[in-house]
Design a protein that fits this description.
This protein folds into 3 domains: 106 residues, Immunoglobulins (Immunoglobulin-like, Sandwich), CATH 2.60.40.10; 107 residues, Immunoglobulin-like (Sandwich), CATH 2.60.40.10; 96 residues, Immunoglobulins (Immunoglobulin-like), CATH 2.60.40.10. It is built from 3 helices and 26 strands. The strands form 6 sheets. Strands 2, 3, 4, 6, 7 and 8 form a 6-stranded antiparallel beta sheet that branches. Strands 10, 12, 13, 15, 16 and 17 form a 6-stranded mixed beta sheet that branches. A hairpin with a 5-residue loop joins strand 2 and strand 3. The longest helix is centred in the middle third of the chain and has 7 residues. It is elongated.
Length: 339
C-alpha cells in the first residue's frame, strides 16, 4: 500500500491505491477488504469490500477506479463522515490494512501500514511572551491556533501552567512538577483568562506555560514552552514621556498622541520575525527607518522609537507609522506628535 503524498492528509483515494504481487501462474479473481483503525486506541474507523477484481501474475497496480467497492462502512462517532466528499482523516495516528481473499473467502495475503496525519502547525504562544516580566497576576493566555487540513471542528486546547523552582530549567519543571493550573479550551478559542480562584501567581517567581492540541481526545501536538515572571515590567528606555501601544491586526487603533518615545508591541507576534518600519508625514512623504533608528526586542518583538531624534520628524504634526511584518502584513498607527 502506498502512503499519501502529503503528511497533512489521508483520503479514501490514498487508502485504495496499492500494488499487489501475485506468485500464481495465471490471472486470478480476488476480492479486497480494507480496514482502518486508530493507531492509539485500536478503534475501528472505516472498512470496505471490493467487487471482483482480476489480478495478473507479477505486479498489479490497484486504484479506486477498479476496486468496484460494494460498501463502505464508517464509524460515524469517530469519523464524522471524514471519507465523504473527498475529505481526509483528521490529524492522528492510523493503521490502514488491505486483505486479499479468493472468491471462496479464503485469505491469500494482507498488508498493513502505519499512517501519521500531522497538523500543519502546532499552536504558537503569543502572550505571555517568552522570558518576559509581566505585572498582571491574572494574565490572559493567548496563542495562534493550530492549523490542520480541512475542518478544525473538534479541536480542543489544553493550557498547562507550571512553577519553575530554584535551579530548575523549563524542561525540568514541565517534566517533574505538577501543573499549578490546567484548563481546557473548546470551540476554537485561542485565549484563556487566568481565573481568580486559581493558585495566586506570586511576584519574583518564574512560571512556564504551554498549549497542547487535541482532536476528540487524541493528542495532535504541543506548543513550545514560554517562561515569564510576575513583577514590574522592564523598561528598556527610561523616559517619562513614553506612549505604550499594542497593535492588533483585527482592530483599528484610534489616533494616539505622543510627545517623545513610542513603544509598540504586536498582539500576535511570531518569535524572531523581521519587522520594517516606515513613517509618513502629513504631506505624504515616506521615510524608511534604518535599523539604527529604532530598538527592537527579539523576546517580544517590541519596537521602540524616539521620535524627537528622527531628522524626518520636523516639529509637531500628524504622522503615520507603518510596521511591515515578515508575512507582509502592514499595521498602521496614526500619531499626533507634539514637541
Amino acid at each position: 500500500m502506498q502512503l499519501p503524498g502529503s503528511p497533512f492528509s489521508f483520503s479514501l483515494n490514498d487508502w485504495q491505491r496499492f500494488n499487489v504481487v501475485s506468485t500464481l501462474e495465471s490471472s486470478t479473481n480476488v476480492i479486497f477488504q480494507g480496514e482502518i483503525k486508530h493507531g492509539q486506541s485500536g478503534d475501528f474507523l472505516a472498512g470496505f469490500t471490493s467487487g471482483q477484481v482480476s489480478i495478473e501474475p507479477g505486479l498489479t497496480s490497484i486504484s479506486a477506479s477498479n476496486l468496484l467497492i460494494s460498501n463502505l462502512q464508517t464509524n460515524a462517532g469517530n469519523l464524522s463522515g471524514a471519507f465523504s466528499a473527498g475529505k481526509g482523516l483528521p490529524p492522528g495516528s492510523y493503521i490502514a490494512c488491505i486483505n486479499v481473499l479468493d472468491m471462496s473467502g479464503q485469505a491469500l495475503g494482507s498488508s498493513c501500514r502505519e499512517v501519521e496525519v500531522k497538523p500543519i502547525s502546532v499552536p504558537v504562544l503569543v502572550y505571555p511572551q517568552n522570558a518576559s516580566t509581566i505585572s498582571e497576576k491574572q494574565p490572559i493566555f493567548t496563542w495562534v491556533p493550530a492549523l490542520i487540513e480541512g475542518s478544525s471542528t473538534g479541536l480542543e486546547y489544553h493550557v498547562s501552567l507550571y512553577e519553575v523552582r530554584l535551579d530548575q530549567s523549563s524542561f525540568e519543571a514541565a517534566s517533574r512538577n505538577r501543573p499549578i493550573f490546567e484548563a481546557k479550551v473548546k470551540n476554537g478559542s485561542s485565549q484563556l483568562a487566568y481565573p481568580s480562584g486559581a493558585t495566586l501567581l506570586a511576584e519574583g517567581k518564574r512560571y512556564i506555560w504551554r498549549v497542547s492540541t487535541f482532536y476528540k481526545g487524541y493528542l495532535l501536538g504541543l506548543s513550545e514552552m514560554h517562561s515569564f515572571e510576575i513583577g514590574e515590567m522592564e523598561r528598556a528606555i527610561e523616559v517619562s514621556d513614553t506612549l505604550w501601544v499594542q497593535l492588533d491586526p483585527h482592530r483599528t487603533m484610534p489616533s494616539q498622541t505622543c510627545t517623545e518615545v513610542i513603544r509598540v508591541n504586536f498582539k500576535y507576534y511570531l518569535p524572531k520575525e523581521d519587522i520594517k518600519v516606515n513613517i509618513r508625514n502629513a504631506q505624504g512623504r515616506v521615510y524608511a527607518l534604518k535599523t539604527s533608528e529604532f530598538v527592537r526586542r527579539e523576546t517580544n518583538g517590541e519596537v521602540i522609537i524616539n521620535l524627537s531624534e528622527l531628522q524626518f520628524v520636523e516639529g509637531s504634526g500628524t504622522y503615520q507609522l507603518e510596521f511591515i511584518r515578515q508575512n507582509s502584513q502592514r499595521l498602521r498607527l496614526n500619531l499626533n506628535y507634539k514637541e
